[in-house]
Amino acid sequence: MAVETSKQVIPGAFSGTALRGDFPVFDRPTGSGQRLVYLDAAASSPKPRTVIDTMADAYGHHYANVHRGIYELSEDATRRFEQARKAVAGFIGAPSEREIVFVRNATEAINLVAYSWGRTNVHSGDLVVTTQLEHHANIVPWQQLTREVGAELAYVGLTDDGQLNLDDFEAAIARGPRLVCVSAVSNALGTINPVAELTAKAHAAGALVLLDIAQAAPHMPVDVSAIGCDFAVLSGHKMLGPSGIGALWGRRELLDAMPPFMTGGNMILRVTLEGAEWNTVPQKFEAGTPAIVEAIGLGAAIGYLNALGMASVREHERYLFEHAWAALHEIEGVRLLGPGDPAIHAGVISMDIEGIHPHDVATVFDSLGVAVRAGHHCAQPVMDRYGLPATTRASFYVYNDLDDVTALTDAVRACQRLFGGA
Amino acid sequence: MDNLYRDFILEHYKNPHNKGVLDPHDLHYADSNPTCGDEMSITLLLESDRVTVADVAFEGRGCAISQASASILTDTLRGQTLDQIRALDPQAVLDELGVPIGPARLKCALLSYKTVQGAVSGGVAEWPEMAEAM
Fold it and tell me: Which residues of A touch B63 (CB under 8 A)?
């Protein structure tokens, strides 16, 4: 492995090599005794020490239930919890933190919209549009909704190089859908979609737009106000935060008009034996005790990312992507999926190594300390589109560097040697 | 370099035993592991006693572990009775592979076992409990 490459200056004002010191997971050697080369951020990211410490401190010294206690400790916990909500709002350009609903993850956020907004606003004969590029989380809830109410679900197809087919998109919105659901960045291929343009066109056709920013928010600046979409969903665990916390952003007037998704404590103003009166947003959608410390941990993760600067994060990953794409492109027998143009391709590389099943690839990689995802990436329609049961996916984040790119290409070659072109 | 891919496994993967489809055959079952796309189809020919395996063949595609496991397992089936095969311990199948199989690869390693069970049990096959969690 070329040690000297880590000294190269990567544009982006920070060094991935140095940042690894912030992440305790890199302290431990892998099972095979080698340095961990973590290339699976798209599945879930490691946590920096500041997130772990903030959460331990919150549990240790600032913990009580929120929005309830008339005592200092509960007020302290509530303040920290609500600061995290403010941090999420600021991070994605939401006009108000009252438009941020804490949920478990992006999947739950989409289900919330599908159940609450969907079952109120989508009726028999209506059209909902999603795309073949989506994570299952942005497909299955819409299949369920449209089946249940007798609406139609249409899919925007993909080009051979992994972009949304814009002719398909135009044709779909010309039919006047109620809602268009699209990801800002594809988790399976890394494609960056032109979401502002898609949103404007969908709005012109009278549709609302739900944006899945689970793969975008961790890796590049995202401003939902500038994009102009109506809903956006994200998961904390993909952006250095803990699992079990995510967020739904929705325009206030939409959230106000929507019925609750789950009911119970916290989401009510008054309950009698005859019925209940709903709380205001966002509490209306946060039934029961929330993931208090997880939200605080997400706030710390956002603080860490803000300190790096999201434009720098994007620049850093773009640099790694360009080098990795070029190096992998040179290896015979490796098929790379997605656009490949760094302007519209995030730090995710999905590949097929000829003659070697991705599970075998990942197992051999693991023996070399390289963690990648092998499978369908919860995006089976994408795999079907390109005639593959699965791919091997490497995804970059702030703690990666050029040594990791070298480790990746070395691992591909080692795999090919082992299988001898089998 | 890697325990899991010692020569024994790779040799079975590259040059599988009992590959093909028996025609005629008495029993057939096909199965898959949708999470990784591994596919397996097994045909069995019985002796005139109708309970002893005379011949066996498999067709499949997928990872090295799943295909090598089918090659190794089918090697052991000739001369066994259907009852003996039904009583086969999945752990014994893993032991035959001779390499440690991590939890994430158990279904790869046991797809051939599950498919054989389907063939000898009238088309009813379930994952062994040890593979269920993944």
Answer: 357-360
